[in-house]
Amino acid sequence: MIRFFQSITVLALALAAGGAAAEPPRMALGAGPRTGDVYVVEVPVSSADAAAELARREFNIASIRENRAEIYAVREELELLDALGYSWHVIRRDGDGTKALGEYNGYASVTAMLAAYAQAYPAITRLESVGQSVEGRELWVLYISDNPGIEEDEPEFKYIGTIHGDEPLGTEMCLHFIDLLLTGYGQIPRITDLVDNTSIAILPLLNPDGREAGTRMNANGVDLNRAFPRYPFDYTGNQGDGEPLQAAGRQPEVVRVMEWTAANRFVLSANFHTGALLVNYPYDEDGVPSGADAPTPDDALFQELARRYARENLPMWNSPYFADGISNGSAWYSIFGSMQDWNYRYMACNEVTIELSNTKWPPAGALPAFWDDNREAMLRYLEAVHLGVRGLVTDALTGQPLDARVTVQGNAQPVFTDPDVGDYHRTLLPGVYTITIRANGYYPQTFINLIVTSGPATRIDAALIPLDAPFDADVNNDGEVNAIDVQLVINAALGLSVPAGADINADGAVDAIDIQLVINAALTRSYAPATAQE
């Protein structure tokens, strides 16, 4: 250890001597790769502008608090710090001293624990790998649901731990949470209800190679939480509108989690970190200077989701640095290529980043206390997946599920149905809303004055009429479809009278399908076909 600090002293003197004469590079290495020795350094930042400049130059910032930034840097980035006039000192070399923490669960024990859980609870779990890391380790996901592996009309949720290999506390919280759900199922009504009505996915260890090495980066020296597609450089739309995934050339762990996320319709998500104590929410970057707020269209919702977690974690909630223990990502400091921004922008999935501890790698003896702080917070955050508006979107003629887009008036952020089932889940705060549901080739349907409470989601199903539907809902042939036609079909279904044309879909019976068709027609005929195809 003495020789290590001597080498750092020599390095610092050499940089100080040569830094003034060298022409500084324009930018740091961003996501990486960083090869050779990577140092964890502390950089005093005397002003918001000084902190913002570090973010703008794309240094790999791990946290900013108490007027200092913690940065992962290689030699040339330390030279750039010198050239820019920043002082710095080395805290440690990335990876030093981590092998002694054997009470944490590394890759092998995480694998064994997940396999044991899947074997012990086969009725409510399914274990699968979503792919492999650079060094061939599996990225394990444990699904927990009453019917794992079966698509149902229920929201999908995910927790992800340890995207940074030297931040393993998230893995431990995920493992504790898995144990809570499995042992509590059938015993604790609250947990039984969650498992029965939610598709839960937990990926405890996203960066197994970094975890084994005790380093932040993956085995290629890349920071995975800076390596997702960047908006608007890599993409400008979202998956629901047909935007390509843009996975080519990215790190294996990033590609695998992108493909896995794109194959599902996750509604709500969180990923766990350490190095600070707060919940930060999108955007991490939206073209504003680092340190400036970058709100999404769902800013108020994200603030409440973040508070929902922080409120149950008293050390976080009482933070002396972040009001209520939360912050907009960019308002804290900008990062580029983050997983949470990609999830929200590309996948229409609300994701936050949860920083669990000011200490990067707390001692193993502190794990029970951290679980006490986070148990209720993790449950409360998961329960938020059931807030807002939900429903099924189907073809009015066939009843088949549709791939549809759901928008809220006054909010640019859409959500999309899961085409396997046709279910959508739009998280909203309590209030009164107007939503519109559209699918290619169908008349849209708009629902006004929808009341959303703080309780379970308001249910609004929609049976959309094809633009080329081979029927006429104008039962009385007066040139319009209105309440009179609706009443005529209802009367026919009840057997009170059977006017000609009441069997809207001509299947030989006047029933609930015909009632739905005439109601939909009455509601949607005011839309011109051109509008209907937007």
Trace the largest sheet across and list its strands.
5-6-8-7-9-12-10-11
Which bin fits the share of residues in helices? 25-40%
Low-confidence stretches: 1-22, 97-102, 526-534
Structural class: alpha/beta
Oligomer: single chain
Distance between the termini: 65 Å
Q: What is the radius of gyration? A: 27 Å
Keywords:
disordered C terminus, disordered N terminus, eight-stranded mixed beta sheet, four-stranded antiparallel beta sheet, 534 residues, 16 helices, alpha/beta, elongated
Can you offer a commentary on this structure?
The chain is built from 16 helices and 20 strands. With about 525 residues, the protein is α/β, with parallel strands linked by helices. The protein has helices spanning about 1-20, 50-55, 75-85, 105-120, 170-185, 190-195, 210-215, 250-260, 300-310, 315, 330, 340-345, 365-385, 485-495, 510-525, 530, and strands at about 40-45, 60-65, 70-75, 90-95, 125-130, 140-145, 155-160, 200-205, 265-275, 275-280, 325-330, 350-355, 390-395, 405-410, 410-415, 425, 430-440, 445-450, 460, 460-465. The longest helix has 17 residues, at about 1-20.
